[in-house]
Amino acid sequence: MVALRIYTAEEISVNAVDRWRKSYADWEPQRKFADGKTKKQNDDAFDQIEHTPDAIAAIMGNKSWTHPQCTFCGNYCDKVISVKDEWDDKSTEICKTCVSKISTLAKML
Ligand SMILES: [Zn+2]
Q1: Cα of 4 to ligand 1 centre, how many Å?
Q2: Ligand 1 centre and the CA of 26: distance in Å?
Q3: How many A from CA of 69 to the centre of ligand 1?
Q4: Helix (H, G, I), strand (E, B) or coil at 19
Q5: For the chain, which terminal residue's Cβ has fewer other Cβ atoms within 10 angstroms, N or C?
Q6: How far is the CA of 106 from the centre of ligand 1 (A)?
Q7: C-alpha angle 96-100-106 in degrees, rounded to nearest 5
Q8: What is residue 88's predicted lDDT score, i.e. its pLDDT?
Q9: Pick from 58, 86, 53: which is nearest to 68 by CA?
C-alpha cells in the first residue's frame, strides 16, 4: 500500500537547527562555510531568531534543511504531497506545480 500525505516545511524545520548543530558539532567555532560566515556566527544567529523555516533557511543559506524538495522538479517548497510505500523507507515528494502537470496528463488516460 502507498500512503499519501501533506509534508510541510514547518514539519521539517521543527528540529532543523538541532540537526544542523549536531552535524557541525565537531567544527571549530571560527571555521567558515562557503558563504564566508563562521559556524559561531550561524550558531549565534539561530539564538536570535524565531525558528520559522524561512528564517532558519536565510541563515543557513539554503532550504535543504528546512523545506521539502520536489522529487520531479527539484524545487524546495513550503508544502508537497509525500507518496510513501509502507514497505520502503523511500518517499517521493511532489509539489503543486508538478501535481498539476500530472493531473493534466491524467486527463488523457
Ligand atoms: Zn515539482
Answers
A1: 16
A2: 35
A3: 8
A4: helix
A5: C
A6: 16
A7: 140
A8: 85
A9: 53
The contacts of residue 43 (CB under 8 Å, 6+ apart) are: 21, 29
Residue 77 CA to ligand 1 center (angstroms) comes to 8
* Gap between the Cα atoms of 35 and 21, Å rounded: 17
Tens digits of pLDDT across the chain (109 residues): 889 999 999 999 999 999 999 999 999 999 999 999 999 999 999 999 999 999 999 999 999 999 999 999 999 999 999 999 888 888 999 999 999 999 999 999 9
Tallying the residues shown for the chain, one arrives at 109
Ligand 1 mean position to 10 CA, how many Å?
18
